[in-house]
Amino acid sequence: MVRVGIGYDSHRFADGGPLTLGGIEIPFDRHLVGHSDGDAIAHAITDAILGAAGAGDIGELFSDSDPANRGRDSIEMLAVAVSRCRAAGYGVSQVDVTVIAEAPRVGPHREAMRAVLSRALAVTPAAVSLKGKTNEGMGWIGRGEGIACIAVATLAPNEDRR
Ligand code: MG
Question: How much distance in Å is there from the Cα of 47 to the middle of ligand 1?
Fold first, then answer.
C-alpha cells in the first residue's frame, strides 16, 4: 500500500547570510532563525515522510529543548527520519515541495537542492520536486518576514519500492 504524508514548516528571517535552504547555502542577505539551521524545506519534507510512515514528527524526534539539536544540520535530521521510516517498513518513493517566499527564488538553486535532498532520501533527483512561488506581497510572507514550505511525500513498503 502506498502511504501519503504532508509536512509544513515556517521560519523567520534575520539579518545576515548565507541562507541554508534545501540542504545548500545560498548567498543572501538574511538567514532563517531556528534551533537547528532553520532549513524549512528539509523540515517540511522530514515531517511529510514521518507522517506517511506514521512514525511521529520532527519535534518529537529532535526536541528544540535539547542542546544537542542546536544548530543541527537538517539534512542529517532528514536522513535519520528516512532511517526511521525504513525501520517502520517503508522507503520514500517521491516528494513534492512548494516553497512560499518573496525571495530568494528557488529556480536558480533547484538542481543543487534536489541533488542534496535526493541523497538524504535515497531516491533519484527526479523523485524530488521543488516549486517556488511568492505570496503576491500579502501578509507576513509578502512582507519578507519569513519562508513557509509545504511538502507531500509518498512511501511504499520496503519490498515494493519504486
Ligand atoms: Mg523548522
Answer: 9
